[in-house]
Amino acid sequence: MVNTTQDHQLSHTVLPKWFQQKLPNVQKIKKMQSMFRGRSLSTVCESARCPNMGQCWDRGVATLMILGDICTRACRFCAVVSGRPSAPSACEPSHVAEMVDALDLNYVVITSVTRDDLPDGGAGQFVRTIQALRQKRPGIKIEVLIPDFFGRRDFVETVLDSGPDVLAHNVEMVERLFPTLRPQADYQRSLGVLRTAKAAGKGILVKSGFMVGLGETEEEIERLMADMSQTGCDMLTIGQYLAPSRDGRHVPVDRFVSPSVFEMYRQKALKLDFRHVFSGPLVRSSYIAEEGYRACQDVRKGEV
User: Fold this and answer.
1) What are 87-133's pLDDT values in tens digits?
2) Which residues make beta-bridge pairs with 277?
C-alpha cells in the first residue's frame, strides 16, 4: 500500500506517480513524536512538512531543528511558521545530545530556523549543540545546515571552528526568484556563505541544495549550478518544490519535474566537479545525508 506525501502537503494537487511511497509504521512515528515532545525538541521533518518524514522516522532517523520552531523570515516556499520567536533555550543543546544518543545515531543533521533577532544569528547555539553532541557521542559525524548569519564570515567561521564534519547552507533557488520568494535573503550572500566555508580550509565538507518547480528556466538552473560549483561546494542536492499550502502565502508549484530530468541535472552537476550530487523528486537537503558524506569520503580516498 502506498501514499503520495503527507496529506497536508498535497494542497489538493494530484501528484505524479513517482511520489508514491510505502505507508510508514504509525506506531514508530508516534514513539518518535513522544521522544521529541518529551525533550521539547523540534524537527525540520515536521516543521517543514517533509514528504520523507514517515520513511526516515520509520528508520529512527530525524533532522533536529534548534533555536525553536518559529522563523524570523517569511519565505514563500517554506512551511515553517514565521513570527517573533522566544529566547533560545539553554537546555536545548543537551536535550539534542540526549535525543541523538537515545536514537543511537552515528550521523546526525542539525538545522535551525533563521534567527535575525539574535546578535549572532544563532551561531553560538550551533556551537553549543556541536559541543554537547561531541561530549555525549565522541565518534559521531555531525552535519549542520545553517542559515546565512547575515552574511557574516566570523559567525560562519565560529561554527566551523567547533568542528562539524559537514557544513551545509542551501541557496534554495535561482537568483531571479529571490526578491519575490526570499525577500529577506540574498543570492550572493548565500553563495558567500559557501565560499567562506570552503575557504576556511579546515577539511570540512561543504554542501548546498536547491529546488525546482518554482518557475525557473533551464538556463537559470545551469547558471545556478555553475555559481555554486565556483564556491568550491562539495555536495549538491536537487529536489522538487511542493507547495505546503494554498492559502496565498506559498507560491504554487509551477511544474513537476520527472525523474529522468532530475538525472539529467545530476549528470550536468557532476561535470561541474561536485564530489556528490543527489537529485530526485523527493530529495531534500538532509535526506539520507550520511550517504552523501560517505560518497565524498570514497572520492577523497580515490584521489589519494
Assistant:
1) 999 999 999 999 899 888 889 999 999 999 999 999 999 999 999 99
2) 236
| Complete DSSP assignment for 231-253 | TT--EEEEEE---S-SSSSSPPP
Cα 180 from chain centroid?
21
Residue 44: closest CA among 214, 234, 211, 286: 286
User: 82: which DSSP letter?
Assistant: B
Distance CA 171, CA 157 (A): 18
In the chain, the N- to C-terminal Cα span, in Å, equals 46
Closest CA to 109 of 304, 265, 245, 291: 291
Tens digits of per-residue pLDDT, 44-64?
656 556 665 666 656 656 788
Instruction: Please tell me the total count of domains within the chain.
Output: 1
Q: Give percent of the chain above pLDDT 70.
A: 84
Return phi, psi of residue 154, to 5°: -65, -35
Q: Which is it for strands 276-279 and 21-22: parallel, antiparallel or unpaired?
A: unpaired
Pairing of the two strands 42-43 and 64-66: antiparallel
Q: Show the CA angle centred on residue 26, arms to residues 24 and 30, nearest 5°.
A: 125
Q: What's the mean pLDDT when you consider all of the chain?
A: 88
**CATH code for the domain in which residue 193 is found:** 3.20.20.70
Q: What is the span of the domain harbouring residue 14?
A: 2-303
* The three cell numbers locating residue 277: 550530487
Residue 110, phi-psi category: left (phi > 0), alpha (psi -120 to 50), beta (remainder): beta
Rg (CA), the chain: 18
Using CA atoms, how far apart are residues 92 and 40, in angstroms rounded to an integer?
Answer: 8
With left for phi above 0 and alpha for psi between -120 and 50, is residue 63 left, alpha or beta? beta
pTM of the model: 0.89
- Asked if residue 20 has pLDDT above 90, the reply is no
Joined grid coordinates for residue 88: 533560545
